[in-house]
Structure formats: C-alpha cells, structure tokens
Amino acid sequence: MRPPLLDPLFAEATTLTGIGPKVEKLLKGLLGVNEREVRVGDLLFHLPHSIIDRRRQPGIAGAPEGAIVTLKVLIDHHQAAPTSSRAPYKVYANDDTGEIQLVFFHARRDWLEKTLPVGETRYVSGKVEWFNGRPQMIHPDHMVDEEAFAEMPLIEPVYPMTAGLSPKTLQKAITAALDLLPVLPEWLDEAHLAREHWSDFDEALRTVHRPEDPKDIDPASPNVARLAYDEYLASQLALTMVRSHMRKTAGVARQASGALKAKILAALPFELTPGQTQAIADIEGDLAAPTRMLRLVQGDVGAGKTVVALIAMAGVVEAGGQAAMMAPTELLARQHLRAIDPLCEAAGIKAALLTGKAKPAERRAILEGLESGEIDILVGTHALFQAGIEFKDLALAVVDEQHRFGVHQRLALQSKGHGVDVLVMTATPIPRTLVLTYFGDMEVSQLPDKPAGRLPIETRSISLDRLSDVVDGLKRALTSKQKVYWVCPLVEESDVIELTAAEERYATLKQVFGDQVNLVHGRMSAAEKDAAMQDFKDGRTRILVATTVIEVGVDVSDANIIVIEHAERFGLAQLHQLRGRVGRGDKQSTCLLLYKGPLGETAKARLTIMREINDGFLIAEEDLRLRGEGEILGTRQSGLPGFRIAQIETHGGLMETARADARLILANDPDLIGPRGQALRVLLYIFGRDEAIRLLRAG
Ligand code: ADP
Ligand code: MG
Asked: What is the CATH number of the domain that holds 387?
C-alpha cells in the first residue's frame, strides 16, 4: 500500500490549474511518461537545464547590448502604429539615466495600456538591444508593478521544452507541484547527509526549481547530487530486493554430464574460442549450483554468443528442463532457430519457434509440446514473457540483445517457472556502472576474442557525391561473387520516409544490377523478410538493400561489404552494430560510410573513430565520451532510460555507494519495517521502484 502522505504527488497533473488534456499530452512526451497519466510528482523531476539571470539592474544608459537586464522605469507615452502600417507598437519609458523604447509586434493596445499605464512606474525585464544609439527592449519577458516585482524571482529556471508548450505554463505547473510537496521522512543516514553536505529531499527539490544562484541547478551541486543519489538508491534497493527474493526461491541445481554438449561440439564446423569456452564454464558452474543464475555474456558483434547460449540450453535440457530464448525481433528469432536447429537435431534436442504470426493450429501444437515437455527449447521474441505460455519445467531463459532486464522483466519471468536461471547476451559493452544500474549485481562473462581467422574490417568514409564510384566498385565486387548490404538512411521520427528512401535506393540499384538486388524493411511481413534474408543467404540475391532492421544480430557469414548511406545520421554504437554484419567469415570485409557533407564536429569525430577503431569496447568508450550514456544503450533520447535525474557522467560515482548502502540497509532490515525502512518505502514509491515492495513479507 502506498503511504497516504504521497497522495498529492500521485494526483493527476490535470488537477493543477492550467493543465488540460492538451497540455497533458505535451507533458507526456516531454517527461517521457507512457502508459499512464502524468502525475504531479512527475513535474518535480523535470529539472531546469539553465537559468536566466535577471539580477542585473544597470539603469537604461548602462544596459549592455544583448544583455538581459531588469529596469525600473517610468512610462512616458504610447505610440501606436497606424493600422495600415506594419510598424510595431512602441511604449516610451525612462529612468534617471535615459530613455528606452519597449517594442511590440501584433500588439493588443488595450492590454498594453493596462499593463504599462502612462505616468506609472513599472519594472521591465528582458534583453536590451541598441539601435542607432538608442536602447530598445522587444517584447519584455516581464512587465510588473512594484508589488509583483517583490515576488518576482530574479533568477529564473529554464526547463527543457517541447514544441507547443509555453514556458510559462510549465513553470506554473511546476510551482504548483512544489506547493503540493508533502513533508517526507528522511530516508538517508544522518551521518551520510552531513558528510556530503546534502540537504533534505524537499529542500533539494525546492532549491533546483527556485534557484537563487546559477550553481543551484548545476548537476554537480549538492542539491542535484542528493536527488540523483536518492534515485540510484531506490533503483539499487529494488534490484537487491528482487535478487535476494530470487535467491530465496531458488534451488534447482541442474547437473548435466555434458553428453549433449559433446554432441553439439562434434557437429560444430569450428573450435570454440577461449572466451566461449570460459563463458560456458562460468555458466555450467552457475547451473550446477542450487542458486539462480543471473549472468550477462558480453561479446562484440560476431564474437559467437549464440553457440554459448545453445550449449547453456543443452545443459539444462540434459538435466531434464526446458529453455526459452528471446530475441528482440521476429527476424532474429527465426534466424536463431535456423542457426541452432541443425545442431539441436544432431544432439537430439527438440527446438521450436513461436511468433505472433503462428497459425492457431500451429500455436496450439507448440503450446501442447511445451506443456508436455516434448519441446526442449522455445525460441521467440520477448512476447514469450507475457503471453499465456506454460512450460512443463522452464529452467533457463536466454535474453538476446536486450539491454534492459530490470525488475519488471524479472518479475514477469518469476511466473513462468521455478527458479528460472537467466542468461542475458549483449554486444553492447556496457560499462560497469551501467551493469549495476540495470542488472544489479549480475555476474558478467566476457568474450574478449573473436573467432580465429577474422580480419579487421576495412572502413572508409566517402562523400555521397561519389555515389557512382561506389556503384562501379560494387559492379567489380559482384563479378567476384561477393555479397553486399546496403543500409539506407536513418530517418528520425518517420519510418515512412525511411521506407521511401530505401525503396528509391532499391529502384536505382535495380536499374544497374537487376535481379541481383533485393529489399528488406520493417514494414514487410515476417515471412517476406524471411524470404528476402534466405535468398540473400543462399546467394540468389547479392545486394540486400535494407533499413536498419538488419541492425542487430543478422548473420550471413559470407556477406563482406556493407554500405551505410547517410552514415552521419547514425550514432556510433549503431554504426558499429551495422558494420558487425560483415567480417563474420575469414574473407576481408569492407564497410563504406557514405556521408553527406558538410559534417558537424560530432559526426566528423564519429566517422573518424569508425575508420580507426574496430574494437567494440573502445568504440563504446568513445561513444560514452561523445554522446553520453543514452546512446550506449541504443536509445535516441538523452539520459538513462528509467532515470530522471541521475546522469552517469556526473553522478556515476554515487552508484557504488548506493549499492553498498542498499545492501547494508537490507541486511539490517530485510523487510523494511523499521523507521528508516518505512521511509525507504516512501522513496521507492517516489521513484516508481515500488514493484519490489510486493516481494517483502510485510509488504
Ligand atoms: P554474435 O556474438 O554477434 O551473436 P553469432 O553467434 O551470430 O555472433 O556468431 C557469428 C558467426 O560466427 C556465426 O556464423 C557463427 O556460426 C560463427 N562462429 C561462432 N563461434 C565461432 C568460432 N569459435 N569459430 C568460428 N566461427 C564461429
Ligand atoms: Mg547474436
């Protein structure tokens, strides 16, 4: 049960004056709130990114060009423009030092006469511009009388905005939300607070929203740091609670003699790399232990994670259990099944694919096979978590290329089996702080080495003006039977435009290469995509024009050229993922980055990094440096998904402390029932990490 004192923060934002359904919709986008209404509390975590300083009061004559100033003036006279002319409306005002014109376009005369009455004193604040030696202020931001001026904050927070929302509306809503902030119990340790010079939670919030000094909104300031720490602590508490719950309900040791593994190894056309062997050994250790496995396998694109997963799954199958493997897209799920099926057959393992597109009869047969235990391995998308799918004995869940495997997903998995072991695979070299953020104390295995014989991919950047040279190059490549991916530009916000671009490129290439070219894009049905991939794999087509659907995981090991059009629009992580579609065999591969100039600084830096670095780990480091952590996780928005205040670059150092703090707290009070425990429950609700509370005995 949510503590009633939090009710005001959980009230719908539309209960605030000035926020109707239209504004709420804009706020949803701005605050990143999906799937529920915007709450009063959400507004409080929308922090200003800068300030406008109105403290300067130099007098009219002393107001510097272009500066924001506040002036105390006497209104002298109004000069309305003749209705026929486009000239602005002007109000002349003065102080002891000189005269200024206040300038208005499309002015409403009656309103201006009321706001700036002749003969009275007013305070105006805005930007001063000097025009032919005379100062002007165009559309002052504030025009108030003595009384209102006393209330006016001279330092004004500026918030991240969205089109259509007025800063004043947002400002007012946040102020109203602050007024509703209840007095909350302190959940941090007093000594810790004193050591860091942090203030109370509510004081910290008030200070950032009502800054009295530019440093009050600095992310490194004690105020913001306190809030970021609270957010980390909430997340670490939730993860630790789920983890200890998982450990408590755990207890299935899956002991395999390795017979199935041996059969798979014998059927593999290659030797495992040392990294693969080590990761498999780590996993076997976890599976044999009576605790639940929660392991992340990190390996660069092409490192060979699939086979590691397969051998893990074979282990639990041999011990009598079942495994599920979840891919981010249906295309990848199908590819996974195709990759593992021959090996499963060799080992006598029954694998099946379940997607949303399965026909009812087919689906029923699969569900029956799962319940009876006839099917050993089920491959699908993340929908396997949700749908009404019952396993006879689900022992292992493999989650491929999914960076977020948080509290929510873990709880969903709880319902699918007893003590299900979890293996997450990712090509994204997630920095340690982020592993902690998303997975808590998940174990990590790395595949540091690529399979033997792989050559570094040669990467070149070429201006789009030289498109015809590139096409000529492809003609030569095709005569020597090479295979080419052609990735079409990423179009933010519109997959329709993205599709059009791909179709156009497909049409032009088809004129040159005829039936050797094919197209694959996200709007195609799964079967169509599949057929296009299979034709390419089998060599019936040799150039595959694609939208970014091929971004992760697609494996055609003899494709060795990739052209990425408008490479300047992609992030580093994405470019590296795309490039990883080639260089998967023992032939020399090439990546051509086609860009449209002129390039901005960041785009230039990205292309240079791509040309010079082949290693995903180093690229991720550069990425973090260039873009911040959002990009690392493949998201386009800035900031950490799921985190509203904490920023890794500034607050990352607090994460370890929060983690240690969370462990200590739960060691002393595992059910959060003491006074501090009760306060911490409030914290969990405030940051939306309360799902974990359900796991507590006294919850
Ligand atoms: P990723 O780690 O990107 O998921 P995959 O598992 O798709 O990589 O493997 C990439 C390619 O490398 C596949 O064609 C796979 O069969 C092959 N492969 C995997 N392990 C090895 C190995 N030890 N030696 C040679 N090829 C391998
Ligand atoms: Mg993969």
From this structure: 3.40.50.300
Does 82 share its domain with 32?
no
- The dihedrals phi and psi of 133, each to the nearest 5 degrees, come to 80, 5
Does 468 lie in the same domain as 436? no
- HSE-CB at 203 with a 13 A cutoff on CA atoms is 8
Q: Could you tell me the distance, in angstroms and rounded to a whole number, from the CA of residue 174 to the centre of ligand 1?
A: 52
Q: Are residues 329 and 377 in the same domain?
A: yes
Percentage of residues in the chain having pLDDT higher than 90: 55
Ligand 1: distance of its center to the CA of 262 in Å?
18
Q: Is residue 228 part of a domain?
A: no
Same domain, 541 and 408: no
Nearest residue (by CA) to ligand 1, atom 9, is: 304
Q: How far apart are CA 648 and CA 651, in angstroms?
A: 5
Kindly state whether residues 199 and 286 are assigned to the same domain: no
- Asked if 320 and 357 sit in the same domain, the reply is yes
Q: Where are the beta strands (DSSP E) in 436-520?
A: 443-447, 458-463, 483-487, 517-520
Expressed in angstroms and rounded, the spacing between residue 422 Cα and the centre of ligand 1 is 21
Ligand 1 atom index nearest CA of 447: 2
Ligand sitting nearest the alpha carbon of 616: 1
Using a 6 Å cutoff on CB, does residue 555 contact ligand 1?
yes
Whether residue 342 has its Cβ less than 6 Å from ligand 1: no
Ligand 1 centre from 475 Cα, in Å? 29
Among protein residues, the one whose CA lies closest to atom 19 of ligand 1 = 304
Task: Check the CA dihedral 434-438-444-449 and report its sign.
Answer: negative
Q: 462 is in which domain, residue-wise?
A: 458-613
Is 78 domain-assigned? yes
Does residue 424 lie within any of the structural domains?
A: yes
For residue 301, which atom of ligand 1 is closest to its CA?
A: 3
Per-residue model confidence (pLDDT) at position 629: 46
Beta-bridge partners for 91: 78, 102
The reported pLDDT for the residue numbered 426 is 84
Whether the upstream peptide bond of residue 211 has omega within 30° of 0, thus cis, is no
Nearest CA to ligand 1 atom 26: 451
Q: Is the pLDDT of residue 551 over 90?
A: no
What are the pLDDT digits (tens) for 585-634?
888 999 999 999 888 888 888 899 999 988 887 887 777 666 554 444 44
* Model pLDDT for residues 457-484, shown as the tens digit of each residue: 999 999 999 999 999 999 999 998 899 9
Query: How open is the CA angle 596-602-604, to the nearest 5 degrees?
Result: 50
150-193 confidence digits (pLDDT tens): 988 899 999 988 888 988 899 999 999 999 999 999 999 999 99
Among 132, 152, 172, residue at a domain's last position: 152
419 and 468 assigned to the same domain: no
Amino acid at 519: L
**What is the pTM for the complete model shown?**
0.64
Q: Indicate the number of domains in the chain.
A: 4
* Ligand 2: centre distance to CA 304 (Å): 7
Ligand 1 pocket member 380 (CB < 6 A): no
In the reported structure, the alpha carbon of residue 652 is separated from the centroid of ligand 2 by a whole-number distance in angstroms of 29
Confidence (pLDDT) at 634 = 41
**Rounded alpha-carbon distances, angstroms, from residue 296 to 286, 306, 434:** 12, 13, 12
Q: How high does pLDDT run on average in the chain?
A: 87
The more confidently predicted of residues 15 and 526 is 15
